[in-house]
Amino acid sequence: MNTFTINIALLVTVIASLIHVANCASDIYVAHTQRISSVQFQPPIIEHYLDTVNAKSIIYCVAACNKHDLCRTCDYDSSTKQCRLFESLGSTGTLIPSIHTSSVFILNYCLQKTNNYDLSTIYSEPDYLCTPALPGQSMTVYDAFQKLILANNNVLLPLAERDVYMSSNGFYTSSSDSSAIRHYGYNGQLITAYAYSSSLSCINYNPKINTFIVCPYSIPRLETQLFNPNTSTTMPQQSISTVGNPFYSYYDTNRLYISYRSYASPITIHSISGTKLFTADSQSTGSFTPFTLWQSQLVFGTGNSIFLFNLNGTYQSSWSYNFSSVVSLIGFIQHDYAGRRYFNDYNTNPSNKGVYIYNQNSTFYTVLNRACVWTCAIKITKRNITLVSLQSPTSSLYYYNF
């Protein structure tokens, strides 16, 4: 049985009245906040951890989450005054039993605004997209992404970019030129470029330990770089030998996961120090194969199929999505804060290019008709939707402001 469901049933306290959150510069109302006592929050993926701040009380913790452009869930320990901020919706993560001084707060912006703020008309994500930037309004996923397409706002990016990581303060790219790691704001403006000794392919980041992991394009190894967010500088940490040239890597709290450019190499699973722990089952073998983590599973795409593995690499099942007649080769897989799943058609036929959007239960939402030949990434904040598309002959950032 789902841990979240159990704890909600036993522990949830609903703060049903509107809360005007103090110290919020954007003056946003939190329409509906759930408090779950004696638990801590565990996000479904490490990227959804945003920050830990000190807060004098519960209201200041909720205010910090409400003010943050990505935060939708927070937990607070009244004994230590620590407030942790998360991008994930509360329903996508896991509630871990904890001491009685710890509580989780789930912010819900899906309130249909009426004259008397009738709470009976609450819509829910992921089927709807809700933002305090449009108080009292909810959009279907289809409508939200149609607005992105119709807005036609785009910023050109350098063609050298090969991979992209979306963070809480902009996005980072790896590239084939001498400025091999670049940091952009979500307006597409370059913030910082980091010189690197070799051309790079993949890039990933662990926000809890401020560490990048990058893949030299022509060398069979991974390299970790300690990142100082205060000075925006990087420092080499370690070099990890691999069985072949990596295509994609994922840096979780305790492990590294690596896929390869060669058909002969399945995913390998390593400790943080680089020691190989497991080789995944043969279903993870492929060339230029993307994957991601979601909750306690590896989600792997090869050809026009998507397979699920446990975190030791044991094959479990495949997705039942009926897209085999449309998608010829999957180029990226991503989940957003609400658990919506995105993947592209890595295809040279322009008529088939696009980003496909599904729900966790395999419900098809829409296809985003923006070419994504190399790889893509999507970020939905409380204020906008951003799509980064790396391709040939051009690479671009597309955005829509709510």
Automatic annotation (TrEMBL):
Entry keyword annotation includes Ribonucleoprotein: no
Signal peptide from the UniProt entry: 1-24
Annotated InterPro entries: Pan_app
Domain (Apple): residue spans on this chain: 24-110
Matches recorded under Pfam families: PAN_1
Keyword Lyase set for record: no
Recorded superkingdom: Eukaryota
Xref: PROSITE patterns: PAN
Keyword field: Signal
Residue stretches in coiled coil: none
Protein name as catalogued: Apple domain-containing protein
Source organism (scientific name): Adineta steineri
Lineage: Eukaryota, Metazoa, Spiralia, Gnathifera, Rotifera
